[in-house]
Structure formats: C-alpha cells, structure tokens
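Proteins fold reproducibly. Consider a sample protein:
=====
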Amino acid sequence: MKKYILIFIGVLASQIGFAQQTNSVRGTVKAVLTEAPLEKATVRVIGSDLNTKTDEDGTFIFQKVPTGRLELEISMVGYTKQVVKELVLAANKELVLTILLEESTRDLEGVTVTAASPNLSGAKTSLQSITVEQVMRFPATFFDPARLALSFPGVANANDQANGMSIRGNNPTGLQWRLEGMEIVNPNHTANAGTFSDQATSNAGGVVMVSAQMMGNTNFLTGAFPAQYGNALSGIMDMRLRKGNNQKYEHTAQVGLIGVDLASEGPINKKTGSSYLVNYRYSFTGLLALGGLTFGGETIKFQDLAINLSFPNEKLGDFTLFGMGGLNSNDFAFDDEEGLGPELEKDQYVINYKGKMAAVGATHTKHFKGTYLWKNALVYSGLRNERIQDAGEAATINVTPLEDIMQSSKLSFSSILSHRVNGASSLKGGVYVTYSQDSLLSRQNGLAGLYTSWVLEPFVQWNTNIGKAGNLVLGVHNLNYTATKTSTIEPRAAFGYQINAKNDINLAYGFHSQLNSPWLNDQVADIKPILAHHFVLSEETKLNNSSSLKTEVYYQALSNALSPRFDSNNKFFSGLNMSDFIFPFDVSQNGKGRNYGLEVGYQKFLDKGLFALINATLYKSEFQAADGEYYETKFSGNHIVNVTLGKEWDLKKERVFGANLRMVWMGGFRNYEINLEASELQGKTVFDYTKELTERLPDYFRPDIRVYLKKSKKKYNTMLSLDIQNVANYANVAFDYYDVFQKKVVRKNQLGMVPMLNYRWEF
C-alpha cells in the first residue's frame, strides 16, 4: 500500500510540475474610425469556454488563460465580426491588445480574419499588415519590418545587403517612410549599403533604426493609396510604435549576430494608465570592431535608442511623446591578409562613411461623443550622411580624394478630424504641413547648396455604404510645394462589393505625385513632381477562418519623369532607371512610364501549427524613350515568386520548436551596357544611353531558413533561434561595373550564406 501511495504522490508531483501555465489577456475594443470605446462587445477565446463582454470603457480581461498560441473572436451588432489570429501568450508576459472593429450595415455575414495589426489606412486594395510576431517568426528578416515586406506580392529586393525595394517595377526611391502617421527622413542604418555608387540612398539601408520590440501596428501599402497619403509613388511603410504595459513591468534582452538589444516597459502611473517603452541596441559587428576585428577590411557599427511615452487623459484626450535616433558607420581599408596585394579598384581606397538620424515628436488623440475623432501630431526628423574617400596605403593608381555630405530635415504637423455621420457614412479630412531643409556638398560632382521649402497637403475623404453589399470611398489630396510653386489636385476613389460571405471584389484608383530630390532644382528649371495614375482591381476569397486567396491586377501610368533635353544620342536615358541624384547631361521632364501586372497570393495564418504565405507576380515595367516607343526599365524583372512555409510543434515542459522556410525566385534586373572606351577615358563606369537596357542579369534565387526553440517559465521566457539567409550559398549577381584597377568590366555578386544566431530572454 505504501508503495502505491508513493507512486501516486510522484505522479501527482510530476503533473503539478508540468501543469499548464497561465497568464492574463486584456485589451480594449474600439470603433476603427472614431476610436471610441465599444461597450458590450463580445470577446471570446476560440477553442475554449472563455468569453466576456467589454465594459463602458471598451475594456476586457481574461484571467488564467493557458499560455501558448491563441485566437480571439470579437463581435458586436452593427460591426463586422473579427477573428484575431497569431497571438502568443507567455507565462511571464501578459497579452495587451487594442482591437478596432469596422462598422457594417450589410445583411451578409462577414468575418474579418487578421493578425494583431489592424487596417489603419482604410485602403481596400494593395495593403499588407505587419506584426511584431511575424517579424520575429519569418526567416531572414533580421527583425526588420522592411525585410519582411520582401515576402509580399510585387516586391523585389534591390540588393541583399539592404532593405531597399522595387514595388511593382517602380524605382526604389518611390517608397515613403512614416512614423506615427507622419512622413520622416530615411530611418535606416548604413544608407549606403548595397548601392552601386556606395552613396547613401533616400529611403533604404542595412536595417531600420527602430527595433522590432518597439513596433506596434504597421501598414504596408503598394498602390492606389487613400486620400490621406501623399508624396509617394510606389509604396508607404506606415510604422506605429507600441505602447508599453501600463500595469506591469516587463523587460527583454536579446543577444545575437545582429547585436545586443535591450528593452523595458511598464507603468508610469497605474491609476492614470500612463506607460513607458524604451529600447537600446548596439550592433554585434560594432562590438567585434571594438576588439579590432574587421570583415575583409570593412568595419560596420551602429547603435540606436527609441522611447515611447503614453499619457491617457479622459478629459483632454490621449497624449504620446516619442523619439528615436541612431548612429552608424561603415569604414573600409584594404586588409591584405593573403598577401596578394590589391585586386579590385576598391582596394585602392580608404572609405569612411558616417550616418546619423533622429526623430522626435508628440501626438494627441481625442474622441467626442463617439462620433468625432481629432488627431494631431508634431514630428521633427533629420539625418546627416557623410562619405569621405581617399587613397589607401596599397594604392597603385591615381586616386582623387572625394567628399560627399548630405543633410536633410523635416518639421511636420498634422491635424485630422474624422466624423461618423451615421451608421452608413463617414467623413475624414485634415492637413499635413511640412517644412523641409536639405543641404548638399559633393566635391566629386562640384555641387553645393542649401534648399528650403514648405509642403502643404490638405485632404478630404467620404466613405459611404451603397445598398446592402457595396461601399464607396471618394477623396482628394492636394500637394503644394513652395520651392517650385507647384500644386497638384489628386482625386482618389475606391469601391468594394461583398459578393457573398466569402468573396469580395474591390476597385481602386488614385492620382499620385512625388517631389523630386531637391538637388535637381539646380539641374532642371521649374522642376515638377513625378505623376502617376494607379488602377487596381482586387478579388479575395476567404477559404476558411485561417486562409484566403487574393488576386490583384494593376496598371500605373507615370509622367513628368526625367528625360534627356538636348542630347538626342542619349535617347534611352530615363530618370525612372536612376537612383542617384546626379545626371550626366541636361535633362527635362518629358519622360513617361508604365507598370502593369498580375499578383496572386495565398495566405494561411498560423493555425494548428502551420502557416503559409505564397504569392506569384507577373509584371512589366516600361519607360518611353525619345523615339516614342516603350522599353523595359531597369527594374522590370518580369516575375517574382515567394514561398514562405512554417511549422510549430508543441513539446513537453512548455517548449515550442519551429522550422520555417522562405524561397524567392525573381527575374534579373536590367541595366545599360557599359561603354568600355568612355569608361577607360574617364576612369569610372560610363553607361551607354544610346541603347536600350540590353544587359539583363541572371535570375535571382535564394532560400532562407529559420529554426527556433521557445521555452516558457513562470518568471521568464527564452527563445533560441538560427536564421540562415541564402542557405544554399547561391552566387546571385548584384551589378556590373568598370573596375579602374583591372581596366575591365567586373561582375559583383550579392551576399552568400549569412547565418544569424540569436538568443532572446523575456523577464
């Protein structure tokens, strides 16, 4: 008898030791337009008997929810039911959510299936939502939302070393970055990474300066933007910062080959609900550099700091104060480890690149009587990039010292008022005001200047239901640019129709403009913005509550692109193919272009341990040459195929193992033929603009993998992960250039295999 009692006690003890851990899930349910709290909305934990209703403040809470993956269903009369998937509850980190419901007066039963990032843009087509959980789970993102976007339809990576992207065949300069709804300067470290000229780009870099641990709701738009968006042609990366936990202190430490990442959050005042969230990051390569270690003579360093403070006030509204900033450098000095001497032109140089960027701001949000929402924001952002090049110790050719310094800043204010007229209609309008200051010193090109301007962008948008299954959105955006006294009137429209409970069809149109680089003011008199008409037709089929199939057809017509003014021999030159700010001859704005294609995508949210994101794009990107005919642009790869698959297994002792795979296959970009004779004469790469882009790079193929192991304890959680970018070590081609040292055209490859080991600790 004693033996059996001891066995029973042992079994019981083991069960207690391995009992399912629990934590709380809480949040707020609001109307998407006015952000007014919704009382008596039903919130249910799918797959359990846990359900509740929101209180008068729209809040809900579940105590003792089993940890791990979970899904919520939120429903309320007059609103579209929403299923939120891909949520993770840890034993020591409670889950805090803000759920935004969309009003619906339709008779058809509709369900919105989403991850934890709602549609804040109001776009009906060409929209992807990005969550922190996805950034942490997808292969080879390096915890960068822009690299995650490279898995979406129509998006092609311009170079492995950076997060620059060509969207639907557009020049990568067509992307706009936003923080808390406001346009900002380039928020990326090492903006010169992967560029042909090793000069800084206007909107890309090695990695975003904001750690994924700071990220909240992020919307990524790729065409026919709603009326509130202006000064962009190809895409919008609209990033919002997450608010810290206002009831509990939580901390995260992360160490890996990307760097050391430390975050802390918690309440400032529990009674008022105010909170803080702060994050600091220092690059691993920078730590190695402090010890004297370089990578082929190259030293890369970066560090950044971000903070978000939230102060809700029942009478005055909600206030936030936020800031982010970073320092980065990329220094090169030839390291002759093998004793072979210089082999390439770059080996002759010593190059010192330094960059810094900062953004600080405040927001105010106030809703009135559940029918009005007033939002205000004030944001300053600025950057400075400096590149100095001189002869190295191993130089055997004549090297001309070069210096390029570029500075840019924006001070922006916005005020937006949204009004729910009735259950079927709403009105939204506001204005963005931006003061910009840009300066350039380029000894290489003999340019120096200071440029200041004001940009005023008012907009208005009307949204109304038509019948029982239709929805119409009409709007207009107005961009006014004082530097060249330019004004555009940009109509926007979208129509959606719910065919049945599983099928929707949407049509969107937008007339858009984007200002050219201010450096071109000295090269082109009375320069005007580039213009584009966007047309998108979309159909989505909900296969079930975890997967959908979406098809989009798009057409984009561009005008006011840069083209040759006098030199008819360069008839195939087009600004649509160029990313630099300097052009070799006089240019005008008579150029045109067009992009058109078909995107088909299948998405399966993580369900029963499986997820998938599979899409294929067939497209063409063309420019009009001086002969009036259309030819394919540099970014016309013709096809993009992305396959991302993943599986998670629940193991014993609160452990989860995951294995994910991503494969991308793209058509190679194109380029002008290099004029060898002119390159030898001028001592640099000279392209032949008398011919169409005859040089097409080989197709690009890259497989990435990610494996991870999560452990959940009562007081802390850990995750050990390994990402391997280009696990097959394919030698994809980056570009060709004329090498002055070798006196021939040299082909430069993209990155080979890049392993990234990371350890994350939440406590």
